[in-house]
Amino acid sequence: MTATAEKAPDKEAEGEGKKKGGKKKLIIIVVAVLAIAGAGYWFFLKPSGPEPPPEPGAILTLDSTQINLSGEHYLRLGLALQLTTTAGEEVDGSKALDAAIELFSGRTLEQVEGHSREKLKDKLEKELEELYEGEVMGVYFTEFVTQ
C-alpha cells in the first residue's frame, strides 16, 4: 500500500499542474481575442478624421421681401442661398424667408445697419445651416434697402 499511497500524491500534483496550465491557456486565449477585437475596431470601425468641409453647389436666389422694422421703417431684403453639392434638387426657400423675417422684424434702423448687419447675417447663416441640415452653407444679401 505504500506504493499506492506514493502514487496518489503524484496524480494530484499532475492534476493541479493541468489546472494551472488550463488557466494560463484561458488567459492567453482571452487576451488574444481582445487583441483581435481591438485591431478589428481600429481598422474597420474607427471613426475617420474630421468631416471634410461642404463643397459649394448651386445658388438659389429668392424673391425680395419687405420686412417691417420698428418706428414705421421697413427693410427690403433679397436673399440668395449658397447650397452645398449634397443639396437636393428642390430646396424650398420658405424656411429661409421665414427665418429672415423672424430675425429682422421689429428691429430699429440702427440694429440692422452698419456692423450689426454683419452680425445679423452671420446669425441668419448659422440658423439656415441648422434649418436646412447641411444643404445651405452660406447666405448672400442681394437686396438690402432700409427706409
UniProtKB/TrEMBL annotation:
Which of UniProt's keywords are assigned here?
Answer: Cell membrane, Cell projection, Chemotaxis, Cilium, Flagellar rotation, Flagellum, Membrane, Transmembrane, Transmembrane helix
- Name where it's found: Cell membrane
Chain segments annotated as transmembrane: 26-44
- What is its membrane topology? Single-pass membrane protein
Which coarse location class applies to the principal site listed for this UniProt protein? membrane
What does the UniProt record say this protein does?
Controls the rotational direction of flagella during chemotaxis.
Homology family: Belongs to the FliL family.
Q: What is this protein called?
A: Flagellar protein FliL
